[in-house]
């Protein structure tokens, strides 16, 4: 597969990973920069510290997702393109995987009771979907690059 056709083959994956990177980078700020988190007077300063850490982590992972999705180094071979896609997928999915696993810690809830009616539980449904889409983007890129897994030059 030529470099141009390989690059075209991964374009749908790159577009999806770019959107997921945007969701990781901006999602925490859009969801938390309000009375439920950052401006919640009932939260202790240390709880707000960890919320800030989480928002910054999402921003960093989103930026890394974009970098590995669109970088032009390591793209002369199918295995190089797949390596870039895999790394971008890992960066994209890490934020959502940690959000899904957060409910497993003692005393956690998807949302505080006072905001459940007005805000729902968006992480409960959204994070697994975004995690799945991250890996679907990789799977699509892998499939298109390897002609359905029939030919791969690793």
Describe this structure in words.
Keywords: Signal. Residues 1-25 form the signal peptide. Helix content is 71%, strand content 0%. With 154 residues, the protein is mostly helical. The longest helix has 26 residues, at 45-70. The two termini are 13 Å apart. The model has no long low-confidence stretch (mean pLDDT 91).
Tell me the layout of helices and strands.
Layout lengths: L2 H7 L1 H22 L12 H26 L7 H24 L11 H7 L2 H24 L9
Helix pairs in contact: 2-3, 2-4, 2-6, 3-4, 4-6
Low-pLDDT residue intervals, each spanning 5 or more residues = none
Total strands: the figure is: 0
Question: Which class of secondary structure composition applies to the elements?
Answer: mainly alpha
Sheet of most strands: none
User: Using only CA atoms, what is the Rg?
Assistant: 18 Å
Keywords: Signal
InterPro entries: DUF6640
Tags for this model:
154 residues; mainly alpha
How would you briefly describe this protein structure?
InterPro entries: DUF6640. By secondary structure, the protein is mostly helical.
């Amino acid at each position: 597969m030529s470099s141009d056709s390989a690059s075209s083959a991964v374009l749908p994956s790159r577009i999806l990973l770019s959107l997921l990177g945007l969701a990781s980078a901006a999602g925490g700020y859009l969801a938390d920069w309000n009375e439920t988190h950052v401006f919640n007077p009932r939260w202790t300063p240390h709880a707000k510290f960890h919320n800030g850490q989480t928002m910054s982590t999402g921003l960093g992972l989103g930026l890394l997702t974009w970098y590995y999705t669109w970088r032009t180094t390591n793209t002369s071979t199918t295995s190089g393109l797949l390596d870039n896609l895999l790394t971008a997928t890992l960066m994209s999915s890490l934020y959502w995987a940690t959000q899904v696993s957060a409910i497993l810690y003692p005393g956690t809830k998807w949302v505080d009771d006072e905001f459940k009616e007005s805000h729902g539980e968006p992480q409960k449904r959204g994070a697994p979907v975004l995690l799945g889409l991250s890996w679907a983007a990789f799977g699509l890129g892998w499939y298109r690059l390897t002609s359905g897994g029939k030919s791969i030059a690793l």
